Amino acid sequence: MNPPSIAQNLQRVYERIAAAALRAGRRPADITLVAVSKTHPWDYVAAAIAAGQTDFGENRPEEAHAKFIENPDAAGASFRLHLIGPIQSRKAKIALACRPVLIHSIDRLKIARKLDALAGEQGVALDALLEVNVSGEASKHGWPPADLHWQLPELLALPHLRLHGLMTIPPYDPDPETARPYFIALRELRDDLASEHPDHDWSQLSMGMSHDFEVAIEEGATIVRVGTAIFGPRG
Ligand SMILES: *Cc1c(COP(=O)(O)O)cnc(C)c1O
């Protein structure tokens, strides 16, 4: 996999995003593509930036920090970094040091409180989504929807955390249609929460990966997180 095919892959993914959006009567520009660069070297990111890509996703804060913040090659590059993986409490500081444009994966009260406190100490606000376990699979991170309903008042009251919506990862199945009910469930949960708490922003739905992003867009995704279809398989 070398840089020329990254540019071609990106173009192809944008075409597929546009086609899925138009099928659903949506505007392609209303969908943000996060290029998931985890495990791949900076060179791959640089090739994507050269092709016009701005938003990148990493799932481990240390790797994100090493690649995008500490790396001298990244200095001066223009990008927006999304943290999309579960954050352990002891990694909260380094997560914040990544200056993420959005954390997609707030999955429990403890990490929400910790990030809020750190953001407060540093005088910054953190934009974030809540990760929901819509499938109920034990292996998945995220809130069971029932818990979210009663824990939401505390989450919404955290002064330095600004929530913008929900994220989910459905159980993996090579057939993208299998994911559709989970994407619908996330959208419906969002609609419920938005009517219960109308004074907050619920606009963002982060759902869809390489094999199912088109279905996710048909069901309302505003952010898709795509790695393999852009950068190739991870080692
Ligand atoms: C790795 C990852 C992705 C991208 O997965 P692909 O199948 O490579 O597109 C998306 N979201 C999260 C949370 C991930 O960890």
Describe this structure in words.
Strands 7-6-5-4-3-2-1-8 form an eight-stranded parallel sheet. Helix 1 (3-23) packs across helix 2 (42-50). It has helices at residues 3-23, 42-50, 61-70, 92-97, 109-122, 145-157, 180-196, 213-218, 228-231, and strands at residues 32-36, 55-58, 80-83, 102-106, 126-131, 161-167, 204-206, 223-226. Helix 2 (42-50) links the parallel strand 1 (32-36) and strand 2 (55-58). The longest helix has 21 residues, at 3-23. The mean pLDDT is 96. The protein has 235 residues and is of the alpha/beta class. It has nine helices and eight strands. The chain has one domain: Alpha-Beta Barrel (TIM Barrel). The relative contact order is 0.16. The site of pyridoxal-5'-phosphate has 13 residues, from strand 8 and helix 9. The site of pyridoxal-5'-phosphate (PLP) has 13 residues, from strand 8 and helix 9.
Provide keyphrases for this structure.
single chain, 235 residues, alpha/beta, TIM Barrel, eight-stranded parallel beta sheet, 8 strands, 43% helix, 16% strand, binds pyridoxal-5'-phosphate
Outline the fold blueprint.
Layout lengths: L2 H21 L8 E5 L5 H9 L4 E4 L2 H10 L9 E4 L8 H6 L4 E5 L2 H14 L3 E6 L13 H13 L3 E7 L12 H17 L7 E3 L6 H6 L4 E4 L1 H4 L4
Helix pairs in contact: 1-2
This protein binds pyridoxal-5'-phosphate.
